[in-house]
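Exam review. A common question shows you a sequence with its structure tokens and asks you to describe the fold in words. Practice with the pair below. Do the first one on your own.
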Amino acid sequence: MTEARESAGPHARRVPGTPCWVSLMAHGLAATEEFYGELFGWEFRPGPQQLGPYVRALLDGHEVAGMGQLSPDHRLPIAWTPYLAADDVDHTADTVRECGGTVAVGPLDAAEAGRMAIAADPSGAVFGIWQVAAHLGTTLTGVPGTPAWNELITFETESVAKFYETVFGYEKEPVVSADFDYVTLHLEGRPVAGLHGVGHALRDRGPHWQTYFEVGSVEAALRQVADLGGRILRQTHDSPHGRIATVADPEGAMFSVIENPH
């Protein structure tokens, strides 16, 4: 895993394929706001309501993530979903279908904010596609409480990497290892996301995207997660990119926290 850090000011260019937003759909929106507000110091304000109640999370006045409320009859997994930038979401959605993926929602306009779709790759991992209008996406990175990285946890990387290469134009950089199946996706020479093949270790969850959020201290974050009703799924471990742990919020949405060594 490599940190993706970019300047995301009001006029930052979003290269197609760049992860530009993360969004969580939950059943109890108020309780979910309380959990993440306490954990990351987020505040919230209303966002587009095309898919039901939706809020944007702000850190020091900067938009960093979104949260929506699922209707009671929806049985979608409670999960953080990365949105990948597109110049033309309709064309990208067509390419997703042509390459063996599916489009579950949209493309549709999200008020004046932009145009979106929710899709899945051929293995079933869900991601969003975002065509910017008024809403650029995440406008702050590199500080605690902001998304730091997005990683696809899948069975094997070779076939799914071809899908993302074709749809978004990524260049791939595999890790050369007999027992570690990992590919870093690059755009314009910059690492933007990862693919991690874990074989049967996926068990019942199935392929899925996982978001990493930066924190000042992983140990402190884990104590907070537990105090707030979440679960620790993988204890703190060291990586070349910082200390990492994986947790779940009270509704079961998985995410990782990373303490950057710098």
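Now try the second one, then compare your answer with the model answer below.
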Amino acid sequence: MLAVGIVSEVFGPHGEALPGFDFALCADRPGPVPTDLGVPLAIAHGLDRLAAADLVIALPGADFRTPPAPAVLDALSAAYERGALVAAHCVGTFALAAAGLLDGRRATTHWRFAELLARRHPDVTVEPDALYIDEGRVITGAGAAAGFDLCLHLLRREYGAATANAVARDMVLPSHREGGQAQYLAAPVPEDCQDERLAEVLDWARAHLHEPLPVAELARRALMSKRSFARRFTAATGTTPHAWLRGLRLSSAEELLETTDLPVEEIARRVGYGSAAVLREQFVRRRGVPPRSYRRSFTSSPH
């Protein structure tokens, strides 16, 4: 039920300013489908509904250890063959693997079942630490709430950072999480006041993105030594302070490129890069295109 809630929330209505989606739940046998909460879902559509879908997401289920019915595997393969995006998160990834869509590709799933996926499907390169993995038209995500990361990534990829950020704000979620699953294996909640101070420092950094933000300054505000801050930061976020800031700066630059006519030089200043050249170098390295080309791809988009 959590997975159903995640995809229906992300691709459900979010106001006129955001894209609307024709969302439907399908099953090989329409009708009441049991859920882990004991409340059945009334599924109105059969597998024929997949024939017109632009995006097909295989949801996780309790019986994932048993391969889906041949008709389901055929429908997933047919959707991919005709050009649809095919995605799954958590143990829904097992359905894509059973359909052969992950052979020769990287994939992820809930960390608890990553070893089982790798053992059953040796042609799949399983990366248990990733929150999601984008392999073009096949995208997989980690377990549980990482479904939000997967779906928001799809929005960001197809409609841009501004749309993904707007939907995330509507759901009161971060539009992008740095790091991987490893950060959630042990201490899922703050252990002491140091974690609370760290959260406050991250909020402060977001509000002062135009400033240099050296790690020493962040550590000072967290009342920690630089070494202790870096260690605590990595334990809490799964990434380094430098990588987190870089991702935040680039995400903010993407949104400004999509939603404003500001010169690239001004955008670079607002997100904390010393010059347009530095922003361009980072953008090409991390996004594959220069900022101006990225902007053109969205200003000319039919969306």
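Model answer, second protein: The chain is about 45% helix and 10% strand. The CA atoms of residues 19 and 137 lie 20 Å apart. Full marks require stating both points clearly.
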